[in-house]
């Protein structure tokens, strides 16, 4: 159930996992993020580094991508951009049904195997073990988001500590530019993600609250901590404003 090469790469390392939440523009934590042994980004995360490096850092060592090339999902697979960004590993999650039931490491039917072959020629490649992914999905009562799944995949490979930043469970928008090329803007997109039945946000939020309390390796940014301290997960404007103070 452990990818040995991936574990060897991660074991004992300090890791920063950077999500795409808009609130990151309020944090000047770029240098702090880059101070970690390994920096991990999600889907189209490399596309916004140049614009927001003061907030989100410059490095990318691992990219977790769903590998679905639609701009609404993982975005175009840009091998040259990934190489320029210093990406060493491409990681992904296996396919599951809408309820999160996962029976093998087979990838989503919309993932091109030509794309996978191209990535394997240029990067180390890792698929989260379907049994571990199923456990996460069972706890969050749905199909966990790619970035959320990355939290548990990284912890399962013996990192020394994990800093989580840029996760809002869509209480705010995607950071500007992250969804460039989509029919919906970042704000409308985030609202629809919050209401998703495929990736339920409330149980993911509840599960992370529990895990953060019980795993001393985890550190979260100041805004995410306020979100996790909330009694209820709601897109109520007052709650968003309070979390961003």
Known CATH architecture = Alpha-Beta Complex
Low-confidence stretches: none
Structural shape: globular
Number of distinct helices? 11
Per CATH, the class reads Alpha Beta
Secondary-structure class = alpha/beta
Mean pLDDT: 94
Helix content: 25-40%
Largest sheet: 7 strands, parallel
Query: For the terminal residues, how far apart are their CA atoms?
Result: 41 Å
CATH fold category name? sialyltransferase cstii, chain A
Radius of gyration: 17 Å
Fraction in beta strands:
5-15%
Order the strands across the largest sheet as they lie in space.
Answer: 5-4-3-2-1-6-7
How many structural domains can be distinguished in the coordinates? 1
Number of strands: 7
Helix/strand layout:
Blueprint: H1 4-10, E1 14-18, H2 30-34, E2 38-42, H3 49-56, E3 62-64, H4 79-85, E4 89-92, H5 113-122, E5 124-127, H6 130-140, H7 146-155, E6 161-165, H8 186-194, H9 201-214, E7 218-220, H10 222-229, H11 237-243
Parallel strand pairs: 1-2, 1-6, 2-3, 3-4, 4-5, 6-7
Description:
The chain has helices at about 5-10, 30-35, 50-55, 80-85, 115-120, 130-140, 145-155, 185-195, 200-215, 220-230, 235-245; strands at about 15-20, 40, 60-65, 90, 125, 160-165, 220. The chain has about 240 residues and is of the alpha/beta class. The chain has one domain (about 5-245): sialyltransferase cstii, chain A (Alpha-Beta Complex). It starts with a helix and ends with a helix.
Short description:
This protein is an alpha/beta fold and 245 residues long. It has helices at residues 4-10, 30-34, 49-56, 79-85, 113-122, 130-140, 146-155, 186-194, 201-214, 222-229, 237-243; strands at residues 14-18, 38-42, 62-64, 89-92, 124-127, 161-165, 218-220. The longest helix has 14 residues, at 201-214.
């Amino acid at each position: 159930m452990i990818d040995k090469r991936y574990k060897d790469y991660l074991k004992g390392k300090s890791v920063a996992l950077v999500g795409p939440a808009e609130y990151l523009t309020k944090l000047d934590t770029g240098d702090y993020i880059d101070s970690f042994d390994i920096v991990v980004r999600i889907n189209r995360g490399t596309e916004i580094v140049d614009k927001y490096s003061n907030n989100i850092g410059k490095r990318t060592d691992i990219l977790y991508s769903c590998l679905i090339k639609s701009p609404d999902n993982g975005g175009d697979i840009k091998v040259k951009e990934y190489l320029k960004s210093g990406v060493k590993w491409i990681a992904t999650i296996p396919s599951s049904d809408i309820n999160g039931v996962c029976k093998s490491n087979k990838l989503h039917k919309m993932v091109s195997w030509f794309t996978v072959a191209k990535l394997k020629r240029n990067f180390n490649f890792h698929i989260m073990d379907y049994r571990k992914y199923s456990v996460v999905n069972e706890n969050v009562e749905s199909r966990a988001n790619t970035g959320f799944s990355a939290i548990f995949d990284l912890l399962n490979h013996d990192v020394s500590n994990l800093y989580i930043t840029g996760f809002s469970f869509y209480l705010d928008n995607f950071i500007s530019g992250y969804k460039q090329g989509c029919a919906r803007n970042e704000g409308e997109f985030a609202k629809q993600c919050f209401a998703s039945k495929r990736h339920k946000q409330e149980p993911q939020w509840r599960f992370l609250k529990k895990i953060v309390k019980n795993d001393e390796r985890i550190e979260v940014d100041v805004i995410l901590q306020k979100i996790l301290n909330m009694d209820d997960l709601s897109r109520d404007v007052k709650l968003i404003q309070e979390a961003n103070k």
